[in-house]
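Progress narrative, Year 2. Work on Protein SCO1/2 from Povalibacter uvarum advanced from sequence curation to structure prediction during this period.
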Amino acid sequence: MRTLKRFCLSSLFSLTLGLIAQAAPAEPVSPSLYELDLTLTNQAGASRQFDVYRGHVVLVTMFYGRCPMACPLLIDTLRAIESSIPEAERSNLRVLMVSIDPEHDTPDALAALAKQRRLDSKRWTMARISKDDVRLLAAALNVQYRQLPDGQYNHTSVISLLGPQGAIEKQTTVLGKPDQEFVADVSKALGRGR
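Result:
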């Protein structure tokens, strides 16, 4: 009798969940990150909407300028990925690094870092967005972060490949060397973009 009662209760519970799920269909979510209403302020102090990258293949990641270890390695990894792309395709590739620390990563601080790292400003952009937008973009890119008591950040290092319409086509967390599968996907995306 107890078994029958449990079976009936679990069946009723499952049926109720099924009805609730049917009654509230999920709204379709755009696969394009360019639907996010984000204003980027770059290392030159210019403000642009995130969708300025529409039509380009973009490597996008999140970082902070005062980062002592992971972020310099992230920049080196992005450079290695970029160098792995044939030069003829490389000119169509954009790299966007968005700060998780807009309080400290002012345009001047970003410009100094870009200069120190000798980043090509024609293809590489270091940018800041509002704190609220940092949370929004981090969630969209699967980047987790938290500020530590000393002002530094713990964060995951994720590099995302955005296709020309802003959809995430591939992600990698490999640092220190190019993820060859990821590089192949970047080349493929660049080939489609021509």
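The chain has a mean pLDDT of 85. The first strand starts at residue 39 and ends at 42.
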